[in-house]
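Provenance

Sequences were taken from public entries as deposited. Structures were produced by running a predictor on each sequence independently, with no templates supplied. The record for glutathione transferase from Pipra filicauda is shown for reference.
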Amino acid sequence: MSGKPKLHYFNGRGRMEQIRWLLAAAGVEFEESFLEKKDDLTKLQKDGSLLFQQVPMVEIDGMKMVQTRAIANYIATKYNLYGKDLKERALIDMYVEGIFDLNELFMNYEIQPADKKEQHFANMMDKATNRYFPAFEKVLKDHGQDFLVGNQLSRADVQLLDIILMAEEFKPGILAKFPLLQSFKTRICNIPTIKKFLQPGSQRKPPTPEEDIPKVMEIFF
Ligand code: IBG
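Predicted structure for glutathione transferase:
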């Protein structure tokens, strides 16, 4: 065994992307095993690798971890991205749960049927612009610091950057009304491990191409 965490998922963002981001931000190299067809999932289910028969699954430190949040919590704790005390952790949890909620909307957009896409898109853009981004702009404004919590990099910064970049793919000017999020984005993008993850050829995933959606549906739904 190489000792590197091994990520089991399809070759796309979905629920795994935030885990990839956390590992990358922590400077941890990881391997990936991609599910290409339903059989690949069935095989993992049959060999007992998936506690709840679902992926993401990450082999790490002798464990086969499932449940996205549990995996992310473990990585964030292990690599010191989870605050320095209970109260910082509480704030980080609040911010990250908001980010997960927005991420869920973004993730589900790709798999919406054609007749629901427009309405889903309007709703997720409305939520990003009028609910989540104003909240994070306010957090930065109220404490005037460079990072969301405790004036040092945490998983909340990493996970927020991921969602900001995704939102900009959907709507390039989405940060226009959020000057502090714009400077936050620049700052976090310049952290060396993150800068590296943003380079072409990294393990960061692009949006799932339209023509691959049926394959994803076949594997999971
Ligand atoms: N609570 C679990 C977690 O957070 O890890 C949910 C995991 C989950 O839904 N896994 C899906 C799965 O394994 C893949 S992500 N399904 C097989 C099964 O038998 O349940 C699927 C997904 C995508 C995009 I891709 C949007 C929403 C879900």
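The CA atoms of residues 48 and 90 lie 34 Å apart.
The chain has nine helices and four strands.
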